[in-house]
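Annex B. Sample input.
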Amino acid sequence: MSRPMNFVMISPHFPANFETFAVRLHEAGFHTLGIADAPYHELSEGLRAHLTEYYRVDNMEDYDQVYRAVAYFAHKYGRIDRIESHNEYWLELDAQLRTDFNVFGYKTDDMLAVKTKRQMKKIFSEHGLKVAAGDVFHSDDEARVLAEKLGFPVIIKPNSGVGASDTYKIKSSEELEAFFGYQNPKVEYIMEEFIDGDIVTFDGLTDHDGEIVFYSSLEYSEAVLDTVEKDDDMYYYVPRTIPDDLVALGKICVEAFHVKERFFHFEFFRVKETKELVALEVNCRPPGGLTIDMWNYSNDFDIFREYANIVKDNLFEAEILRPYNVVYISRKANQTYAHSIDDIWANFGDNIISIQSVPGVFAKIMGEEGILARTQTIEEMRELAQYAQAKA
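Annex B, continued. Sample output.
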């Protein structure tokens, strides 16, 4: 009888909806071996019940402590088969541990391509995808020259970063000079031309050989950067129908970035004037927020179970029918709405999946309240979003 596979889970309690990975892996017969800095008693009861063992470290930023935790598991359970956090923040930690313990998946040498936007641009271009013009800069003078070349407005963001944090739309020379006063001196920034377009994504999961077994997409009511700047409502959704050109470019990206037995989240601009796609960035982990749960509601399957099957037997068994559009609708604490939560339940109860409070760390974008719903048509979805976000 073969031994159980040993799956080391980095920070398995965060975000909370990712705890289901431990549940499904444990149910599939894995040794689920958790490492984090949270005290054991603070983990949810459901997570504790589905971790084979938990090793608490004092500081997850101290590589030696995390390395010793993995070494302990290897000594006790045998060769480590997988190390994964599914979290952008720990991508480099995961890779370093995989390198040191010779575990399948991205290694340290792969990080330049999947963490830095300049290298992403290079790979996009080598594979025939259009990208926003731009480059990194290392001095104020370099930034001024680059802005002159690109023309205002420009976008400035960390060369290695996540989401819309520390990202700026600079509209003039004066705003650029002001940026020099508050930029983080420890961060390498990249400047890009402004693309007037809507962000769309190509997301999914690949098998052990890099074949896509499931794909989906996200569309947004407005750019995340605009939501943060205006501190306003937004909604985003998993559509039933995914454009052919997006699927074609997404498949190129999966191959170009060697995505194997991983979730992926690729971002593109859909240019408003020409409708063409411009590659923005790659994220080799699941989309954030509740998106992975939205896939389940959109397809009536269990992506966590399918992932466990892929890791164990390289099998994906769910049928992809996409019967629903699934939408996340934010409501902000600083707004006064025309309709209460009870009103929303009364008018759209058949469509509502859940209504929940959002932790403060995510509320700037996701709102203090989040409504998750599904509809069969886009028209129904937009009607629900407009009703939920209508102002008094």
